[in-house]
Amino acid sequence: MEAFNRHIQKVELLESNADKLQRSIENEMITHSILPQHRGEVSSLIDVIDEIIDTVKTSLNEFGNEMPDIPDALNHNFISIMEASVSAGEELMPAARAYFKSPYTVREKLLKVYYFESETDKISRSTTKFIFQEMKELDLAHKSHLRYIIHNMENISDNAQKAADLLSAMAIKIVM
């Protein structure tokens, strides 16, 4: 539990730093007229990326507060959902960097985001189906709680997909 709390503190620090960086970037864009024709889109992208970090923080805090009773048979599934969901967010970063350096490569880099988001959905659906159809020993409240935790983990990759969609549209505009 102590290690888990350290991870939560680390994520909260990262999220706080990301918020400060977001304000700094927006200030620099306005002060120095950086990308004036794309300022709104870049600002929206930063907001959506910040939402991914916020979602990670919220998911960890809820997990830590609620301490869900995850049956041993589902441990691997929950780890796989979280790994795939977080990977979607991680894979967004190279694509976001490419937007500023090599916008022609953005769409190719986003394929990994879409892949991990799809994998998250597949694992989540099969796990939820298994919980509700096969785990007869669990009561409905326990099943619903597990589904709620899964949904929170899915939100990370869903937000990564939103950011990827926005970034893809931005890259198309800048390349044209």
Topology, element by element:
Layout: H1 2-31, H2 39-66, H3 75-101, H4 106-134, H5 140-175
Helix pairs in contact: 1-2, 2-5, 3-4, 3-5, 4-5
What level of helicity do the residues show? over 70%
The description of the largest β-sheet is: none
Query: Gap between N and C termini, in Å?
Result: 51 Å
Number of strands: 0
Structure classification: mainly alpha
Q: Quickly count the domains.
A: 1
Query: What is the level 1 CATH name?
Result: Mainly Alpha
Beta-strand fraction estimate: under 5%
Number of helical regions: 5
CATH topology: Methane Monooxygenase Hydroxylase, Chain G, domain 1
- What is the H/E string? HHHHH
Q: Please, what is the average pLDDT?
A: 87
Low-confidence regions: none
CATH superfamily: Phosphate transport system protein phou homolog 2, domain 2
Rounded radius of gyration (Å): 18 Å
Identify the overall geometry: globular
State the CATH architecture. Up-down Bundle
Question: How does this model look, in words?
Answer:
The chain is mostly helical and 176 residues long. It has one domain (2-175): Methane Monooxygenase Hydroxylase, Chain G, domain 1 (Up-down Bundle). The protein has helices spanning 2-31, 39-66, 75-101, 106-134, 140-175. Helix 1 packs antiparallel against helix 2 (39-66), helix 2 packs antiparallel against helix 5 and helix 3 runs antiparallel to helix 4 (106-134). The termini are far apart.
Fill in the keyword field for this structure.
5 helices, 0% strand, Methane Monooxygenase Hydroxylase, Chain G, domain 1, mainly alpha, single chain, 176 residues
